[in-house]
Design goal:
With about 375 residues, the protein is of the alpha+beta class. The chain has three domains: about 1-115, DNA Polymerase III, subunit A, domain 2 (DNA Polymerase III, Chain A, domain 2); about 125-245, Roll (DNA Polymerase III, Chain A, domain 2), CATH 3.10.150.10; about 245-360, DNA Polymerase III, subunit A, domain 2 (DNA Polymerase III, Chain A, domain 2). It has helices at about 5-15, 70-80, 130-140, 195-205, 240-245, 260-270, 320-330, and strands at about 1-5, 30-35, 40-45, 50-60, 60-65, 65-70, 85-90, 95-100, 105-110, 125-130, 155-160, 165-170, 175-180, 190-195, 210-215, 220-225, 230-235, 250-255, 280-285, 290-295, 300-305, 305-310, 315, 335-340, 345-350, 355-360. The strands form four sheets. A nine-stranded antiparallel β-sheet has the order 14-11-12-13-26-25-24-18-22. An eight-stranded antiparallel β-sheet has the order 6-2-3-4-17-16-15-10. Strands 5-1-7-8-9 form a five-stranded antiparallel β-sheet. A hairpin with a 5-residue loop joins β25 (about 345-350) and β26 (about 355-360). α1 (about 5-15) packs antiparallel against α2 (about 70-80) and α3 crosses α4. The chain is elongated and about 80 Å long.
Length: about 375
C-alpha cells in the first residue's frame, strides 16, 4: 500500500478516531486504526467493541492495500510531521514507512484481517435532523446522564419519537433533563444511546443546519455526520416513565434572568467544598429570591430580583445539580415552578416547553 495525503486533514481525522480506540484490551488490533485504500481516498476505522468510528479522506493512491497502525504512535507521528503532506508506504511484512519532508519513520503494523468487523445495521428507518438541532438536544441533556451503573439503562439518553416530535431524555435519580423538538418523522420510535457515545457524537457535530442521519436498529445505532460514521451498541432495559415524573401543577412560579441566578448561586457556593457539603437554601417571596448557605467555614447570603407568583416557599438544592440545570438552559430567562419544599422543581423556558429540567430538593435541617 502507498498513498500521499494532506497532513492537516489526516491529523484531524486520526485525532477524532483515537477516541474510539480501546486503551485496555487483550486484542492488539483494537489499539490501532485500520487504514484501507479506496478510489482516490483512504478509509480510517477505529472500534473498541462499544463505539466504532469511520471516516473517508481524499488521498493520492499509488498502490492499494490495508494495514492496522497503533493509534497513539501514528497520531503523534502525523501531528508532528514537518511538511504539509505525508506519504505512507507498507510492505508484505506489515511494516509502514511514513515520510514527511526530511522526516521518516518506520513502524511495525498489523495485518488488517485482525481488525473486527463492524456490526451490520439492517432493517432500520432513517431519522434526519439538522446538526445544530441535534447538538443542542444532546448538550442540554447529557449532563443528567447517570454516572452510576446501579441502573445501566440510565447511563444513556432516551430518544423517543411520537407524532413528529423528538424527545431526548436523561435521568440520574437526582435530576431529569428533557429536550423536545419537532422533526419530520411520522412514525413512533424509541431507543437509548449510551452517554459515552453521545459525548463523542457531540464533538463531531457542527453549529450549522447540515443534515445528520441516524439509523437505529434493534441493538445498534449509526450516526452519519459529514464524512464520519459513528456506530454504537444501544442500551437495553426499561427507561423511567419521564412523562409521569414531571409535575403537573405548581403553587409557586418564578421568572428570573438565568445568568443573574447562576452568578448568585456561584457566589453562595464559595463556602461549599467536596469536604464541606451544604445545600443552597432558596427563599422565594415578594419578587425576590434570597439565597443562603452555611458550612463550618462560614455563612453567605445573596438575593436577586425575580417575577414571582403564588405562595412563598423555602427550599434547598444541591448547588451542583442546580447550576448544571441552569447552565444547560441556554436561554436569557427561565421559568421555575415549585410545588412544596420536598417536591422537585421544574425549570422551563420563559415560554413554551422546548426543555424541561427537573431538580430534586435537599431537605433543610435548621434555620440559618
Amino acid at each position: 500500500m502507498q498513498f500521499t495525503i494532506e497532513k492537516r486533514t489526516l491529523s484531524e481525522a486520526v485525532g477524532n478516531l483515537q477516541r474510539a480506540v480501546s486503551t485496555k484490551t487483550s486484542i492488539p488490533a483494537l489499539e490501532g486504526i485500520l487504514i484501507r485504500t479506496g478510489e482516490e481516498k483512504i478509509i480510517l476505522s477505529a472500534y473498541d467493541l462499544e463505539i466504532g468510528m469511520q471516516t473517508e479522506l481524499p488521498a493520492v493512491i499509488t498502490e492499494p492495500g490495508a494495514i492496522i497502525l497503533t493509534a497513539k504512535l501514528f497520531s503523534e507521528i502525523v501531528r508532528k510531521s514537518p511538511a504539509e503532506d505525508l506519504t505512507v508506504e507498507t510492505d508484505d511484512r506489515f511494516t509502514a514507512t511514513i515520510t514527511s519532508g526530511v522526516s521518516c519513520f518506520t513502524i511495525i503494523g498489523m495485518n488488517a484481517a485482525e481488525f473486527p468487523e463492524f456490526p451490520k445495521i439492517t432493517d432500520t428507518d432513517t431519522v434526519s435532523l439538522p446538526s445544530n438541532v441535534l447538538k443542542s438536544m444532546i448538550r442540554q441533556t447529557l449532563f443528567a446522564v447517570a454516572d452510576s451503573n446501579a441502573k445501566p439503562i440510565h447511563q444513556g439518553s432516551l430518544f423517543k419519537i411520537e407524532d413528529n416530535v423528538l424527545d431526548v431524555v436523561s435521568v440520574d435519580g437526582y435530576r431529569l433533563a428533557l429536550r423536545r423538538e419537532a422533526i419530520q418523522y411520522a412514525g413512533s420510535l424509541d431507543f437509548v444511546v449510551p452517554g459515552k457515545t453521545l459525548g463523542e457524537v457531540l464533538k463531531l457535530l457542527r453549529d450549522d443546519d447540515s443534515t445528520v442521519e441516524i439509523f437505529p436498529s434493534r441493538r445498534h445505532i449509526l450516526f452519519k455526520i459529514d464524512n464520519y460514521t459513528v456506530l454504537s451498541a444501544l442500551l437495553e432495559g426499561e427507561f423511567l416513565d419521564y412523562k409521569a415524573a414531571l409535575p403537573k401543577d405548581s403553587k409557586t412560579e418564578a421568572i428570573v434572568t438565568t445568568r443573574t441566578l447562576i452568578d448568585s448561586v456561584e457566589r453562595v457556593s464559595l463556602l461549599i467544598t467536596d469536604r464541606l457539603k451544604s445545600p443552597v437554601r432558596c427563599v422565594f417571596s415578594e419578587d425576590t429570591i434570597k439565597l443562603l448557605c452555611a458550612t463550618t467555614m462560614g455563612r453567605a447570603n445573596d438575593q436577586i430580583e425575580a417575577k414571582i407568583t403564588g405562595e412563598p416557599i423555602e427550599i434547598g438544592f444541591n448547588n451542583k445539580y442546580l447550576l448544571d440545570a441552569l447552565r444547560a438552559a441556554e436561554s436569557d430567562e427561565v421559568r421555575m415552578q415549585l410545588g412544596s419544599p420536598i417536591s422537585p422543581m421544574l425549570i422551563l423556558p420563559k415560554e413554551g416547553d422546548a426543555f424541561s429540567f427537573l431538580v430534586l430538593p435537599v431537605r433543610l435541617r435548621s434555620e440559618i
